[in-house]
Write a structure and sequence with these properties.
By secondary structure, the protein is of the alpha/beta class. It contains ten helices and 15 strands. Strands 2, 3, 5, 6, 8 and 10 form a six-stranded antiparallel β-sheet that branches. The protein has a five-stranded parallel β-sheet with strand order 12-11-13-14-15, with helices on both faces. β5 and β6 form a beta hairpin. The longest helix is centred in the C-terminal third of the chain and has 20 residues.
């Protein structure tokens, strides 16, 4: 059988036409870059200081350059929008994850105060160290856009191209000045959504109009005290701790979870903290990994702090996210959520975050 793009032209990528397009580096443009660490001050795009990531372990140092949670927000009146991306090329198409989620971008348009998916900037399967991609709009008028960055790759440089004579301007800021900080596993990182806009943090960001930082690291977020100290140093409106899957055993989770949360709490006595257990149902093989015991470890941290008078801690049972009809449609492998699973996770977290951030639903 031949290449699917040859068999079905609907899968083929259209040629990228750059005639009449002016490209500029995002660092030289009046755009707002969210979710990345000091993108205008450092020589690379990453999620936290690279020196700190290297002090933890080589795997986190490598994954720190993944731009999961990165968003670029701006206004333009161009009817054509192009990206010129330079990447390392080390991230290849995977089995559980789409290449678009790993290395591509998607774009959302603001209309009537809400974001709506518009299109994708798709990396070609044969990409080596970069690519060009384009999307089009039906007419030339001002639109506010958000580009969601790759979840398991990053970029060394990124240029935005618009039609000659068109403008690029700053977009509307988020409703809260500081971000929500999410810490966790590959699920937090974004595996295995079909595209970046469908990871649960981006869904919540759209629904709540909030900024956030994604500190999800596949297999390597293990509740280290140094990581807790770093997270505690960030000016945040809330912290979400969700690394159950990365603790190898119940004993490992028991040894790290309460100390990790307490480090954050000691430095931020009034900031809300949400603790979440793994979002998998006992109908999968993961039920044999002592899920109820792991959930109780996390709940115990919550109950201890509540018992000490802390009213700004919250707990969510991850198994509630996929409960009900369609529970067996939420993951690709019994562990990693697909788009439907991430949507259900966002549904489960939204009312709690609304209460934490805005006092709604009390």
């Amino acid at each position: 059988m031949g290449d699917l793009q040859q068999l079905d032209p609907n899968f083929a990528l259209a040629p990228v036409v750059t005639e009449g397009i002016v490209f500029r580096d995002i660092r030289q443009l009046p755009v707002d870059i969210y979710g990345l660490y000091r993108p205008l001050e450092t020589d690379q795009y990453c999620r936290m200081p690279q020196e700190f990531a290297e002090s933890l372990n080589p795997e986190i140092a490598a994954m720190n350059r993944n731009t999961s949670g990165g968003r670029i927000r701006f206004v333009t009146d161009s009817a054509r929008l192009l990206l010129r991306v330079r990447q390392t090329g080390r991230i290849k198409p995977g089995i559980r994850d789409t290449f678009l989620n790993k290395a591509g971008f998607d774009v959302y348009v603001f209309e009537n105060g809400e974001q709506h998916f518009w299109s994708i900037f798709e990396p070609p399967a044969g990409r080596t160290n970069g690519y060009e991609a384009a999307v089009s709009f039906p007419d030339r008028r001002r639109r506010e856009l958000v580009l969601n960055c790759p979840t398991f790759d990053g970029f060394l440089s990124l240029e935005i191209g618009v039609e000659e004579g068109c403008v690029i301007e700053h977009g509307t800021p988020y409703c809260l000045e500081n971000p929500v900080v999410f810490y966790g596993s590959s699920i937090t990182n974004g595996a295995a959504a079909s595209r970046p806009g469908n990871i649960y943090e981006n869904i919540l960001s759209r629904w709540l109009n909030i900024d956030y930082i994604n500190l999800g690291f596949s297999g390597r977020a293990k509740g280290e005290p140094a990581m807790a100290e770093y997270i505690a140093s960030l000016d945040a409106v809330a912290y979400v701790v969700d690394y159950d899957h990365n603790a190898k055993t119940v004993d490992d989770l028991q040894a790290t979870h309460e100390p990790f949360v307490r480090i954050i709490r000691e430095r931020n006595p009034d900031t809300p903290i949400l603790m979440i257990s793994r979002p998998n149902l006992p109908i999968t093989p993961l039920s044999h990994e002592r899920v109820p015991m792991r959930r109780q470890v996390i709940r115990n941290t919550y109950e201890k702090l509540r018992g000490e008078g802390d009213r700004n801690v919250y707990f969510l049972d991850g198994q509630s996210f996929f409960a009900g009809r369609g529970d067996d449609c939420c993951t690709v492998d019994g562990c990693h959520p697909n788009d439907f699973g991430f949507y259900r996770m966002a549904q489960g977290m939204e009312p709690v975050l609304r209460k934490m951030l805005f006092g709604e639903g009390e």
